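Much of our argument rests on the idea that a fold can be written as discrete symbols. Part of our work consisted of pairing the sequence of a single chain with a tokenised description of its backbone. The amino acid sequence and the backbone structure tokens for this protein are reproduced below.
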Amino acid sequence: MHLDLEKANITVVMATYNGELFLRKQLDSILSQTLRAKEIIIVDDCSTDSSITLLQEYASSDPSIKIISNETNIGYIRNFEKGMMLATGSFIALSDQDDIWVPEKLEKLYTNIGDHLIIYSNSELIDANGLSMHKKMSDIKNQISYDNCLMYTIGAWAPGHTFLFKKELVNLCIPFPSLVTHDFWLGFVGTCYSPIKYLPEILVLYRQHTFNAIGANTHAKKASQAKPTKMQLQEISRQRMQLLYNKCPSVLVSQKNVLKTISDSYQSYSLKNNLTRMLVFLKCRNLILAYKKKSGFMKILFCLKMFFKIDY
């Protein structure tokens, strides 16, 4: 499907919170795109630094920028959800407050999205000073096209900061659950209706620093965060599997049956559940573990471990 650049109707949705250190560079990179967004919605989550002043400075000179200030802190998932619901564009690109976009990002994603609901790209990691860390997101885990919702069973590696997606996807995702990140939910729901396309080009410089809400290592915990107990992790995993099963459309008979079997097996550590869980993971391992950089042997070993554990 050919898309006319002159008719591009893209909304950029940015969520901000105390982003004064890096915000200016990201805004400049968005405003310097070869394909300009028709609308830039920025939802600030009660920043206590100079973020609002900086945003107002930009908005005063560019009418495409719209600032929404929350009355109470609602967290980054609700913040992005709010911005997406306010978007009027036919396409939405999500923006973190601390990255830098390559000038051709929106143009390349828009011209390659075709009939897909979502397209995403590779990105390069930079440090707090904007210097390359000589590592790409694709170096950490496999970045691939996702054409089956089972590929999201335990995780995925399609980051929201590289997304361009059609506005209709938001309506399919509302309400956004708190159990998973907003971009995971967009991706999972998206694969239930259309394959996610991967464009293997670096279109974002993805900044890693102390205050990342989620960095390239999504399992890293900040020192100030209490580590969940084993029982808490297990309960989160149970609820998460139930969430995926419930959301999977009934028309995807095979996938929904697999998610139901896995979800049911997460209810206890009975011998039957443990064996069922392990066998389903083994059978579907090439889908479930597609994003992980694991050999065939390590995939099998991972599945065998599912006999003894629920969380991952």
Observations:
- The chain has two domains: 8-207, 230-305.
- Residues 8-207 form a domain with the Spore Coat Polysaccharide Biosynthesis Protein SpsA; Chain A fold (CATH 3.90.550.10).
- The radius of gyration is 20 Å.
